[in-house]
Specification:
With 325 residues, the chain is of the alpha+beta class. It contains 10 helices and 14 strands.
């Protein structure tokens, strides 16, 4: 669509871009460019104009925008040109898994304004109201990667997401083992990684990585959901951020992860350990159907949590729910 192309040119420009430059780049008339500029303005895009200079964006678009995000990523980013935005989906992970099964390429990224059936780990629901969060899933098809390495990917994503949130907003988030980001002791972001295998060979086919970041919820929002003691948002903690900017930062971090994986595991492991608030804490966990307690003492090379149990044994926990007590 010409409108998306005009939006991308404006997002990519460092300053003003003339109508003549855009018409030349798109192979259309200047009148067509002006028409699309006016349509974008009517939709709330803050576009400034100058008789001598042309047009420029004075700020981000009013809603999530695929052409804006792709343009901000840069051409060499894995996700550039493959960003999709939907106003409403059941679950970005569920939708992207269906797209992956139908042959969608690696680097496809799906973002939604709202989810009607957001999912967390162990089949839990994830509250995904419109305007309150960023809901994002990406498709990766790692080639020549061993299964044991793929099983550590959630830990890698935790590092990438934590650093992207801090870069975008300044919020000093931490990681709660294995797949949550916390801010000031409350949950800020959940991460869900789903791996699919080829039926005939049993080889890994693709990975869908999804996350939901709480951005705009208020104390009243969480109170109405019964989550006031559990969850928080960037705005509530004093770190507001614009959603397109956060999306760009997350996709840049995930692009870098795709380049680093799996060779730079030790570096990501150390970054995870340095911000893992579970380490050193008293925890409870499932010990083969029995609730056990102990102290989380270290993270091993596979991102598994080692717990010194109150039963006198050391337990290795690679999945499941671990609660800090």
């Amino acid at each position: 669509m010409e409108r998306d192309q005009v939006a991308a040119l404006l997002a990519r420009a460092s300053g003003y871009v003339s109508g003549q430059e855009m018409s030349r780049a798109l192979g259309v008339t200047r009148a067509s460019v002006w028409k699309e500029i006016e349509a974008l303005r009517a939709a709330g895009w803050p576009i400034e104009s100058s008789t001598r200079k042309g047009y420029r964006l004075a700020g981000p678009p009013p809603a999530l925008s695929a052409p804006y995000i792709s343009a901000r990523l840069g051409e060499d980013n894995l996700f550039a040109g493959k960003v999709l935005v939907e106003p409403l989906v059941d679950s970005t992970n569920t939708r992207l898994k269906a797209m992956a099964a139908a042959g969608a390429p690696t680097g496809t990224a799906l973002l939604a304004e709202e989810q009607s059936g957001g999912r967390g780990t162990h089949g839990r629901s994830f509250q995904s109201p419109k305007g309150d969060g960023l809901y994002l899933s990406v498709l990766l098809r790692p080639s020549l990667v061993r299964l044991p390495d793929l099983l550590t990917l959630t830990g890698w994503v935790g590092v990438a997401a934590r650093e992207a949130v801090e870069r975008a907003s300044g919020a000093p988030a931490d990681i709660k083992w294995l797949n949550d980001l916390y801010l000031n002791g409350k949950k800020l972001c959940g991460i869900l990684t789903e791996l699919s295998f080829l039926g005939e060979s049993g080889e890994p086919d693709y990975v869908v990585v999804g996350m939901g970041v709480n951005m705009g919820q208020t104390a009243e929002t969480f109170r109405a959901q019964g989550l006031e003691d559990i969850a928080t948002s960037l705005a509530l903690e004093g770190w507001p951020v614009e959603q397109n900017h956060l999306a760009v930062c997350l996709l840049e971090a995930l692009d870098q992860l795709s380049r680093d994986f799996p060779a730079r595991r030790r570096e990501y492991l150390e970054r995870y350990r340095s911000r893992c608030l579970t380490l050193g804490r008293r925890v409870s966990f499932d010990g083969e159907g029995v609730l056990l307690t102990g102290t989380a003492v270290r993270l091993d090379e596979s991102f598994a949590l080692r717990v010194a149990g109150d039963d006198g044994r050391e337990h290795m926990i690679s999945s499941g729910t671990v609660k800090m007590i």
